[in-house]
Amino acid sequence: MTDLKDALDRIEQDFKELKRQYDLFFQGGRRSEPMEERRILEWMVRRLGQRKITNTTDQFRFHTLQGKFHSYSNLWTRMVRDLEEGHLLRDIRGNLVRTKTLPAEPVTPDHLDTVIEQLKSARRECGIATEEKDIDSLRDMLRSRAVEIAGKAGGRRVEFRVTIEGGKPKVKAGLK
């Protein structure tokens, strides 16, 4: 029983140290990611997870530590990937800053013209009149909707398509 509590204490202590090492790494105080320390702690958590823990207090403590470790592991993996992909950069003080990688325009003017022409013909097909003032407001609405969608999707290009559903033309958005 004492060795289980000692193992839990050791995992907790090693986890705090690993978290500190990752904080140093992300703040620029450490050159490389603490992969070896992470691998050892992951092995310890996996080994302890294979044991039968009968005491509910120890079970709860272990599952809490295990969940915390896996949550932080996912966070660290995601942050390292963002660093490698250039979504996170270091500023002058060494702090990490998330970059916005939005394209200049999430939808090209040529694509908007094509969509508007498709919409005009779909409206004619459905017997709906189209006025020129409607076209200008539609163009503005599509452009602002594309900016909103691209912002939520991480800066990707937006592509619109026109469909007819229930006798009415619909404009649907998708990502390229």
User: Any idea how many domains?
Assistant: 2
Rounded to the nearest angstrom, the radius of gyration is 27 Å
The poorly predicted ranges are none
Query: Count of helical segments?
Result: 5
Rounded to the nearest angstrom, the distance between the terminal CA atoms is: 57 Å
Could you characterize what this model shows?
There is one protein chain. This protein has 5 helices and 4 strands; from the N terminus they run H-H-H-E-E-H-H-E-E. By secondary structure, it is α+β, with helices and mostly antiparallel strands. It has 2 domains: 2-98; 109-175, no CATH class. The strands form 2 sheets. The protein has a two-stranded antiparallel sheet with strand order 1-2. Strands 3-4 form a two-stranded antiparallel ribbon. Helix 1 (2-27) runs antiparallel to helix 2, helix 1 packs parallel to helix 3 and helix 2 (35-49) packs antiparallel against helix 3 (56-85). It starts with a helix and ends with a strand. The relative contact order is 0.09. The model has no long low-confidence stretch (mean pLDDT 86).
Key features?
single chain, 176 residues, alpha+beta, 2 domains, two-stranded antiparallel sheet, 5 helices, 4 strands
